[in-house]
Fold:
Amino acid sequence: MHVGGPWQDEGVSENLTIDDTATRWSTPDRAGMPLVVLLHGYGADEHDLFGLVPHLPEGIVAASVAAPLSPPWPMPGRSWYPIEGLDGRSAVAVTAAADAFLRWLDTAGAEASSVALLGFSQGAAVALQALRLAPERFGAVAALSGYATPGELPLDDTLKELRPPVFWGRGSHDDVIPPALIDHTAQWLPEHSELSGRVYIGLTHSISEEELVDVRLFLEKWIDDIAP
Structure:
């Protein structure tokens, strides 16, 4: 059972709940299978990344999760944390979202043989933050067009020892993620993971077919490594 860590600020994480009824599953037969959880970006929802399922390796279960917040009107979809205002992209807010996700995973991922995360933009930031909160729970993380949140968490030293496989992909023309966060991530990930990744020339804040091929190869290696 996941328990919130000492980072928590005035119970902020308890205010976030993921709607399990909104989760889209690729198959009802999930026991003992490797699980890939898809975490969408700002203004999207659980339907967005579900379209990637045909590009994922065979022999896995995929679950696409709906983020717990609604962005300000008139933005559609869902969000993991606010990006507006002076507190936009707050480390506390990102961690609260990751902790809410881990509580969802306590039940939803209980029967999985191993869990990998595939996040886009905000979803990538939450995926990396969840890895930092519970590094022993994940076999791999694919972070697309996202970033590692600045600041320290209690298990960062543990992460340095475990060095889980992380794929970080982003476009050379992505102007959504602030350059300071990209620079931080470029320094932080090599110290805390077994990093692979690629900058896709000409790609904006999106996912290309070329990137999907790389993600599939990355996840196939994860599957090979957990095979009995």
User: Anything to note?
Assistant: Residues 165 and 194 are 5 Å apart (CA to CA). The beta strands are 24-25, 34-39, 61-65, 114-120, 140-144, 165-171, 194-200.
